[in-house]
Amino acid sequence: MTTRYTDEEWTSIIRSARETLSDADMMYKAPTLGSEEFTKSIDHQLLNMDARKEDVDRLCEEARTWKFNVRMYFDSELCVFGPCCGDLTDGREQSVCVRPHHVARAVGNLKGSRISVASVVGFHEGTQSMTEKVAEARKAIKDGASEVHMVLNRPLLQGGEYSAAYTDIAAIRSTAPHPIIVGLILETSQLSKGDVVAACKIAAHSKVDFLDTCTTIDGIGTTEDNVRLMKDVVRGQGIKINASGNVQTLRDAVLMLEAGADRLGTTAGISILKEARARVDGLTHSAGFAPSADIARLQRSQHEGDGWLASPSPPVGKPQTKQYFPSS
To answer: In this structure, is the dihedral angle defined by the CA atoms of residues 207, 209, 213 and 215, taken in order, positive or negative?
Structure first.
């Protein structure tokens, strides 16, 4: 497989990407609280290492009730793993994400439902050989997976071996051509800002469909800055962003969506939706009948000062290159 560019050429491409990042004050419109779109932005996760079959049953029942997407991660007995890998096509409401050797079982169990099956590759450190990753992806697809999400090989990226990092990702894209969805999990908490830019740029050249912030296994999880930075690097290229980890409250959810996330990976999905619905009820009662188009305006204007969404707007026109890569 071609390496596309030399490491020196990749360095130039990445440097150029850093220099052309757009303004730091970019704010995206979050889905209206209480809407179906807001609900479906949540990936409902089960991250317990000791989770059992009854936990899976409960998670799936919650997903059916609340119309979540589903992400699951289990111990070696069940081996059902998952980052935040949202569905992009075919109108399916939910998906489960499992390790390659459990895809066939999941596909069989979900036959006849609107739940698709995704699988992870190189989970969770990303340092497996390209041959191993390709074999995992090939088996998952053969067994019926419609998505594969691979973990970035961070040592390659951080060592400046950009050509090797590209080849690793491109091998999975080649193994899983469209309409299979391919995602790349960065583990942003373990990367510098420069590394995040490099990973996003290389991933975009590799034609991935999704960029996931974290596995939720290492580090502190997602930050607004990293979501915003990832969105800026791939803006306009059709790549979606999944903010996984560190999303525990409605405030967290709205801020991540406004930073540019398309999906939210969290174990707190039910409490977030309950809080959202309570706030919508409170807004409509306090404002009289409020059309859904006004809820987003009301949710921010009425709560910016009450500690829920008290985040001041960033100064207009401040370039991201100075925010993320200060000269001093």
So the answer is: negative
Query: Bridge partners of 23?
Result: 319
Spell out a b/e string for 247-273, using b for 16 or more CB atoms within 10 Å of the CB, else e: beebbbbbbbbbbbbbbbbbbbbeebb
- CA dist., res. 191 & res. 168, Å (int): 18
**Cα separation, 36 vs 46, whole angstroms:** 22
pLDDT digits (tens, 9 = 90+) for 173-208: 999 999 999 999 999 999 999 999 999 999 999 999
Residues listed for the chain: 328
Estimate to the nearest angstrom the gap between the alpha carbon of 297 and the chain centroid: 26
CB-based contacts of 281: which residues, under 8 Å, 6+ apart? Answer: none
Which residue from 122, 86, 93 is spatially nearest to 110, judged by alpha carbons?
Answer: 93
The encoded tokens of residue 116 equal 């698709």
Distance CA 258, CA 66 (A): 22
